[in-house]
Amino acid sequence: MAKKRCIAMLLAGGQGKRLGALTRYVAKPAVSFGGKFRIIDFALSNCVNFDIDTVGVLTQYKPLALNSYIGTGHAWDLDNTNGGVYILPPYMGEQGGTWYKGTANAIYQNLDFINSYDPEHVLIISGDHIYKMDYSDLLRYHEEMEADVTISVIEVPIEEASRFGIMNTDETGRITEFEEKPANPKSNLASMGIYIFNKDLLVESLTEDENDPDSSNDFGKDIIPTLISRGKRLFAYKFSGYWKDVGTIDSYYEANMEMLLPDPPFKVDEEGYKVYTNSNLHQPLYIGTNATTDNSIICSGCTIEGTVRNSILSSDAVIEEGAVVEDSLILSGAVIKKGSLIKKSIIGEETVIGENCILGQEADEKRHPAGITVVSGHMNIAPGTVVPEGADVLSYK
Fold first, then answer.
1. φ, ψ at 238 (rounded to 5°)
2. What CA–CA distance (Å, rounded) separates 155 from 13?
3. What is the rounded distance in angstroms from the CA atom of residue 96 to the CA atom of residue 89?
4. Strand 358-359 relative to strand 386-387: parallel, antiparallel, unpaired?
5. What is the chain's alpha carbon radius of gyration, rounded to the nearest angstrom?
6. Cα–Cα distance, 239 to 170 (Å, whole number)
7. Which residues, listed in sequence order, are joined to residue 47 by a DSSP beta bridge?
8. Are 202 and 107 in contact (CB under 8 A)?
9. Residue 301 φ/ψ, nearest 5 degrees
10. How far apart, in whole angstroms, are the C-alpha atoms of residue 127 and residue 135?
11. Strands (E), 274-377
12. What's the 3-state SS for 134-187?
């Protein structure tokens, strides 16, 4: 097998608890985004667009939907014979086996996969961010700086820096200190959770960390601070494009709705940065004679006979006659029955909202900060049900 310059390890096993009902049946990277996409599409597309042809996808929580969705990797041109995409769940070996205990432990459990390609460098990325990045430029910077580790960072408003892991650097860009959510941040360079390691150092660091009983087996909490303290060459790569962590309902909703702007900050069909997806073939879109649509993204297979305003409908969604959907995200296969009103809501996959329901109209003290109503996938909401604004619905009577 030919030696690789760089391979990617994509962390996609997170439960995504902050997304509440949306991750009841699927891992966060498998959650629908922007109508036809899933969150993991963006990291996989970055890989294929920028010369990373070997990707290990580390799965754990609710892996079935994600494994089925990725399949052979053909949709992202990641099904080649000397590389491709590989699903890497926890497994039992001669010494036993455990669930992935942290980000570092997840990579450690797959060192055999990394060593089988013997790459010079290993790119470690997450499957739960919306962004486009030229990984080849990141790798070029890493090599030019003769770095041991390069960490991608993004400038955030200084007043928000205490929410992030912050990298403090010298004038050359070398990282001198890492602070996890500092009360008084010294800089505004927030870690994006994207790392390039020299492979030999990665193997050495992970092996040592695994043998430390006091370690939490996490890159940010353990590996990175240890390497800085030992004087290793860690550099910050400043990223200036669009990047959003969609780990909360509010940020997920906001990122989706930004796609409806006249000039959206993130374009999925930009030349050279196209986002690929494994969308199965669907029936054509049908819009009835009495339907009304305005400023919305409506994917193939949908049936619209009611009113849709400022919303995103994933494939095979159904809006029956007399139903009204406003400022909402309707995920794949969801059905909104006659006479129902859906406002500022996210309706999960394959969920059926019965006739004459009202969602998102009344205030509730346990609501999300932005008042977004969320209904889990694969549910049946009884006719006439009123779901208050901001509710997180896993079951409802």
1. -85, 120
2. 27
3. 14
4. parallel
5. 22
6. 17
7. none
8. yes
9. 85, -10
10. 15
11. 286-287, 292-294, 297-298, 303-304, 307-309, 312-313, 318-319, 324-326, 329-330, 335-336, 341-343, 345-347, 352-353, 358-359, 373-375
12. CHHHHHHHHHHCCCCEEEEEEECCHHHHHHCEEEEECCCCEEEEEEECCCCCCC
Q: Nearest 5°: phi and psi at 223? A: -65, -55
In DSSP terms, 345 is beta-bridged to 373
Name the DSSP class of 96.
B
- Residues 360, 169: Cα–Cα separation, whole Å: 46
Which 3 state secondary structure label does DSSP give 93? strand
Q: Which residues partner with 239 through β-bridges?
A: 154
* Contact status, residue 13 vs residue 106, Cβ threshold 8 Å: yes
- Taken as a whole, the chain contains a residue count of 397
Task: Write the CA distances from 102 to 14, 29, 194, 215, 229, integer angstroms.
Answer: 10, 17, 15, 10, 21
Q: What's the whole-model pTM score?
A: 0.88
pLDDT at 247 over 90: no
**Nearest-angstrom CA–CA distance, 215 and 218:** 8
Mean residue pLDDT of the chain comes to: 90
Among 197, 39, 47, residue whose Cα is nearest residue 127: 39
Give the rounded percent of residues in the chain with a pLDDT score beyond 70.
93
Contact (Cβ atoms closer than 8 angstroms) between residue 22 and residue 346: yes
Residue 361 has pLDDT above 90, yes or no: no
Nearest to 154 by CA among 172, 141, 167: 167
